[in-house]
């Protein structure tokens, strides 16, 4: 049986070194016709998909997370600038076309955990006004259907899950918050501390960025200089795989399907409900059937999948009113 059909519970990276959690394997097996049935399919295991799975982990719903990428290997190259940037060792996205139809390599990565395997782990909240209508040079960004106040309790939950270190009251544009940051702010290194003092003397208001790392209290973060752009060799960066997916996979009702790319969403005859997702596991056809589908493929790939899912009722693509 292909590794791609294996769903992993708990600590799973087959190439990682010493595991801090028990390793349990489970299996998502399509039937003879390549079908998988469950309650909820989450497409994409990045920040959105993994956090969503974590929120549903105790719901009793049968959840399958579908991820086109594989586990990112933990290896010494994780921290090598030459490997990461010079050789592009982890770049695995296909080329995209720009407005002049010229190919380029997008800055996205297809791995379990999505782009957060490479993110800088800075997790500021949106400002209150970001939820309102905003006029940009390129056009009007409509108001969100929810406000910052609606989301605030969930920001607080997410900051706990992602162990965000910060200090309220320093950033002049920060929105109100119902409580302090779950972790104290990281201290500046000596060079940065001197720069901060100098900026303050000039009347500026520097502040510490909220950082999602496992630092202090026995945590593994060593405050190295390789966070933004690099995978974390120590699993000490609070990325989506480490902080949300692994805990979610401890629930018996959450399973993960890797190396599986969803190619098209299929709607019911009335065109109002998505009922199936067609994809490929290592090149073999698979169809997922569920009551709910959560699209968390990242900003561009979610939109691309909706466009590729055009059908008779939605000739311009699903959810594309404009
Ligand atoms: C170098 C770098 C630094 C960054 N630093 C920060 C930072 O400091 N702070 C911050 O807030 N943000 C940062 N970001 C951005 C942040 O990583 C993204 O905003 C975030 O990961 C988006 O989450 P997502 O779930 O929407 O998508 P992603 O994380 O992109 O996850 C989408 C997942 O879906 C999978 N997928 C895509 N298409 C399909 C398909 N058809 N079928 C199955 N699976 C599919 C992908 O493989 C991927 O795993 C950074 C990004 C990069 C690249």
TrEMBL record:
Molecular function per GO: flavin adenine dinucleotide binding; oxidoreductase activity, acting on CH-OH group of donors
Flavoprotein listed as a keyword: yes
SUPFAM superfamilies: FAD/NAD(P)-binding domain
Keywords: FAD, Flavoprotein, Oxidoreductase
InterPro entries per the UniProt record, alphabetical: FAD/NAD-bd_sf, GMC_OxRdtase_N
Domain Glucose-methanol-choline oxidoreductase N-terminal: 112-315
Gene3D superfamilies reported for this sequence: FAD/NAD(P)-binding domain
Highest taxon, organism lineage: Bacteria
Keyword Flavoprotein: yes
Family: Belongs to the GMC oxidoreductase family.
Name of the protein in its database record: Dehydrogenase
Organism of origin: Pseudomonas jessenii
């Amino acid at each position: 049986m292909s590794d791609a059909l294996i769903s992993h519970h708990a600590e799973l990276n087959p190439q990682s070194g010493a595991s801090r959690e028990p390793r349990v394997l489970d299996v998502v097996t399509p039937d003879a016709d390549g079908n998988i049935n469950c309650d909820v399919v989450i497409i994409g295991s990045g920040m959105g998909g993994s956090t969503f799975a974590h929120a549903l982990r105790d719901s009793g719903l049968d959840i399958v997370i579908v991820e086109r990428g594989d586990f990112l290997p933990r290896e010494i190259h994780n921290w090598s600038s030459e490997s990461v940037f010079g050789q592009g060792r982890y770049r695995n996205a296909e080329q995209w076309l720009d407005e002049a139809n010229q190919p380029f390599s997008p800055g996205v990565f297809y791995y379990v955990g999505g782009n957060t395997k490479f993110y800088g782990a800075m997790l500021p909240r949106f400002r209150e006004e970001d939820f309102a209508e905003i006029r940009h040079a390129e056009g009007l960004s409509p108001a969100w259907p929810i406000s910052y106040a609606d989301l605030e309790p969930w920001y607080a939950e997410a900051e706990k899950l992602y162990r965000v270190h910060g200090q309220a009251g320093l950033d002049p544009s920060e929105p109100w918050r119902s409580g302090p940051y779950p972790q104290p702010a990281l201290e500046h290194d000596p060079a940065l501390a001197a720069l901060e003092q100098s900026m303050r003397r000039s009347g500026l208001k520097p502040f510490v960025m909220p950082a999602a790392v496992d630092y202090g209290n026995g945590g593994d973060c060593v405050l190295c200089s390789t966070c933004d752009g690099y995978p974390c060799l120590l699993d000490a960066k609070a990325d989506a795989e480490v902080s949300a997916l692994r805990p979610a996979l401890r629930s018996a009702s959450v399973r993960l399907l890797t190396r599986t790319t969803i190619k098209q969403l299929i709607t019911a005859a009335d065109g109002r409900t998505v009922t199936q997702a067609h994809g490929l596991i290592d090149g073999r056809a698979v169809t997922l059937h569920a009551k709910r589908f959560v699209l968390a493929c990242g900003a561009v790939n979610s939109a691309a999948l909706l466009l590729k899912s055009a059908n008779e009722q939605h000739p311009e693509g699903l959810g594309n009113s404009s």
